[in-house]
Amino acid sequence: MASDPRPELEKLLETHPCYNECAHRKFARMHLPVAPKCNIQCNYCNRKYDCTNESRPGVTSEILTPEQAVEKVRYVKEKVPYLSVLGIAGPGDPLANEETFRTLELVGREFPEMTLCLSTNGLALPENVDRLRGLGVRFVTVTMNAIDPEVAAKMYDFVRYRGKSLRGVEAARVLVEKQQEGIKLAAKAGMLVKVNSVLVPGINMDHLPAVAKRAKELGAYIVNILPLIPVPGTKFESMRAPTSKERKQLQDECEVDIRQMRHCRQCRADAIGLLGEDRSAEFAHFTCGGGEKEGAPAAMELEGNTKYRIAVATTDGREVDQHFGFAEKFRTYVVEGPSITEGPSIDVTEEQEIPLFGPGHRTKIEATSDKLKGMDAVISTKFGLPAIELLREEGIVPIEDSGNVKEALRRAVDSIFKERSATFE
What is the reported pLDDT for 51? Predict the structure, then answer.
């Protein structure tokens, strides 16, 4: 069994629902979705926005600025008086977003009574331990799915490290090394570390006892074995989820070495309330000074999708030959690896009845952008600035190109990958 926490953390532990099973029915947590960018792509993760009916990591209904996060905490505190923990868990990786540190600074200053925590894949943890400690973070969760690079390589699509995109065993080796180094440094700095491990039958199930044992050696306090959620649009969408029996057997085996978290609810990146009683939908689309506002999804950047859904302004399906604002329909395609599959067309004929200029023009662009929701990118010969702005608000990358559609789709995939795998310097 892992050692007990340091005395100064014992009181905080009493009110942290994720680390203490006795606390999860009495105390609430609030995740602040301020970190959209990620520096890795897990094969089980598909980060989306405005999904109020889904409850899983990586899902949020909005992206907040640090200042908006503070404003929202003020509001939520009035409605949820038993709120004790403020955490940052994405929807990307918090340490790949400078906004994370600004948020921690602001909420720590205004709400010193709150416990601050953070969830990360661990890639950038070693160089940020001291900074997090200085900002008052005492609880850190690291998702570590393997300690053997050969096993880890099966769990991830790519790793973005020091400006380079790494894949395969090379990527896994860097990630595993940094995760272990970060856990050790965080524990040494006096933080309580929880290790999350996603259980994927046929990939890492037999390997997780070794992960748990290593977590104990590195100084982690508790391990949380999470069952795979096969999410559409990911490489693992066709994998089977583990059974309750398989998960329990692993938890029992791993508990010989280290505490096991058995009450996890695999929370959203904007979760609010008690575990198992998420109230995030109640506070979705919050705006500063105006309480809650319905129907205002926030833009979110998704890095390294294994599937790209791309709309093309083309009259014949062979050439990219139309301006965004003049297109009557967009043909859609799914690009996955070498495969290009044509999907249903998106008809925007009605929008062409709206004048190109004048007060109705923005309405036309808004209506067109709304119909393109769900696309990763749109290719056309030209975009106006308002169209670029609105598409980006929907999380869609506008790409100007011309010529052969399939060649343009290949170039678009490269553009999306480079843009979305970029991290803050």
Answer: 39
CATH superfamily placement of domain 308-420: Dinitrogenase iron-molybdenum cofactor biosynthesis domain (3.30.420.130)
Each residue's pLDDT tens digit, 76-123: 888 777 788 888 887 889 999 999 999 999 999 999 988 899 999 999
Q: For residue 215, name the pLDDT band (cuts at 50, 70, 90).
A: very high
Nearest C-alpha neighbor of 423 from the set 274, 301, 298: 301
CB atoms within 10 A of CB 390: 21
Between CA 128 and CA 139 the distance in angstroms is: 14
> Which residues share a beta bridge with 223?
195, 260
Listed by start position, the domains of the chain span 7-283, 308-420
CATH 3.20.20.70 assigned to 7-283: yes
